[in-house]
What does this fold into?
Amino acid sequence: MSLDPLLLSALAAAYLLGSISGSLLIGRFRGVDIRTQGSGNAGGTNAFRTQGWAFALGTVLVDIGKGVAAVALVRLAGGGEMAQMAAVLLAALGHVWPLFHGFRGGKGAATLVGGLALLWPTALLPLFAVWLGVLVASGYVGLATVLAGLALPLWALWEGRAPGWPGFALLVAGLLVFTHRGNLQRLRAGTEHRFERVRLFARRPPADV
It folds into this structure.
């Protein structure tokens, strides 16, 4: 890809867009910092657990939107597929390590989804199917997100994408595994938080006779 000054500026802006944390931005209006509550993460799941669905919805919309905006900006700057892939990753890195919030952010999943929505929309449905299937089977949001990310390289191969796409998909999957490493450790230890309400196959208590 051609790294002209305009494109370089757009890529830098992708990281800066990623650094705008939805939960922390909305939290300023409420006078709360969700990094001091719940799991301490600035993402949508912790926002839902600690502040409720409306706060979480706003968080997710901002975080998805900045992924879309990062790709759109690089596309407007004349960047091709490789540059747009870089924009997705830079926005996600900005979300995880935000310049504006002391480099303490979320896990990047929503921002990656936003970038993929514009760059690779055909991947969204199968990834959502994996995510939802794991979630309703296990109740673990982190596990569902990691497995959906790991399915992305397989989907790239299934679609017969050019060589750069599986590599990009592996980077996305690797980032999600890294940012969810705490969830995986807690899962192994049996201390991971589970959303029992979404489990379809949870054991039900016997009915009173």
